[in-house]
Design goal:
mainly alpha; 2 domains; 0% strand; elongated; repeat; PPR_At4g14850-like_plant; TPR-like_helical_dom_sf; PPR_rpt
Length: 139
């Protein structure tokens, strides 16, 4: 049954996700794990994160990411940093960024951009200087 739901989800528009709520699909991922033993991976969570329509949904999905042990993945962490910034939650944006052991150009760019879009340009400048000190080349 879950396979049909996934195929159906591929054809569902983002508007439908926003209307019905993203957490229905989060339940699907829990079912995949608990019933079928299939663990969502980074691609699964990045896809799920794209349909977030609220900070509440974002935090719930972040909780699922932690539950399934994907939280330290660079791709998922980058999506979380970006979305927390877009939801005006720079505190959570910072926590995800800080939790990462290795930071690439993309994550640095996401946190700098996130702080900039939240009118925190001075802090964004500090991030840029820190990035350069870490010998990460801006692109």
């Amino acid at each position: 049954m879950w396979r049909e739901k996934i195929v159906e989800a591929d054809f569902t528009s983002r508007r439908s996700f926003a209307k019905d709520g993203c957490m229905g699909f989060a339940g699907l991922f829990s079912e995949m794990w608990e019933v079928h033993g299939l663990k969502p991976d980074d691609s699964t969570f990045v896809s799920l994160l794209k349909c977030c329509s609220s900070l509440k949904e974002l935090k719930q999905i972040h909780g699922l990411v932690a539950k399934f042990g994907v939280a330290v993945d660079v791709v998922v962490s980058n999506a979380l940093v970006d979305l927390y910034a877009k939801c005006l939650d720079v505190g959570s944006c910072w926590k995800v960024f800080e939790s990462m052991d290795e930071k690439d150009t993309f994550i640095w760019s996401s946190v700098i951009s996130g702080y900039t879009m939240n009118n925190r340009g001075e802090e964004a400048g500090h991030f840029f200087k820190d990035m350069c000190r870490q010998r990460v080349r801006p692109n």
